[in-house]
Specification:
It comes from Mesorhizobium erdmanii. The protein is α+β, with helices and mostly antiparallel strands. The protein has helices spanning 22-34, 39-49, 56-70, and strands spanning 4-11, 14-21. β1 (4-11) and β2 (14-21) form a beta hairpin.
Length: 74
């Protein structure tokens, strides 16, 4: 089992943090690269579209899961 790591990011001028296991983080980095975005930009995009009752870490995991289910490469 992978250890959860806390990471920080600035979104719209506000510093926040999220916690992800390494496999989720690695996939998120790969998705950002595939979309030709910075990781911070992708996290901000996910943050903007997540339901307000979902925390950012959960939203990031769900995004990675949906990406994997769709088999996306772009």
């Amino acid at each position: 089992m992978s250890v959860v790591e806390k990471r920080s990011v600035t979104i719209r001028g506000h510093r926040t943090s999220y916690s992800l296991e390494k496999p989720f983080y690695d996939d998120l980095v790969a998705i950002a690269a595939a979309k030709e975005r910075t990781l911070a930009a992708l996290v901000a995009e996910i943050d903007e579209t997540r339901p307000r009752d979902t925390n950012l870490s959960s939203a990031l995991r769900l995004y990675v899961l949906e990406w994997a289910k769709r088999g996306r490469s772009d």
